[in-house]
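Meet my pick.
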Amino acid sequence: MTVHSWRAVAALFSLLLTLGLDAAGQARPSLIAPRVGGTVTQNAPGAALARKRPVEVDFSLLSSVRDALQLRPGVAQQMEIPFFEDRTLTINLERMERIGRGVTNFYGTVEGDPLGQAVVTQSRGNVGVTVFTQGLAYQVRLDGVGSYVAQEVNRGNL
């Protein structure tokens, strides 16, 4: 093999390696995960609160998003929120606002829904999430005993 052939092979290998790393790097971080041992609670059809399940929140992800939005304002930060096994939403957080007293709001859109909106609020070590998409609202909130729940709300039944 000539020197030019080796260079071509090396260049091709480098390109494939780079593409592989880019594809692997595109996995979106997840804000929540199901709580071990938790189960989904389904409500009767027609109820405003359709279903809920206990979840764990990845607080470090919000710190990373905050840092990224400060370093590169206007560059959306993507994350997935797997509210339920059959409903994972990708949100693009585009801006943040610190409103005082330890409260930070993150605002964004829902991928694939031009009318979808997302708000993530971090307040004194707690998190609240509301995502509006396709006539439904999805929330992550404290359940009153110090744990978090993800819930689906049918706004048409309110």
Helices lie at 3-25, 59-71.
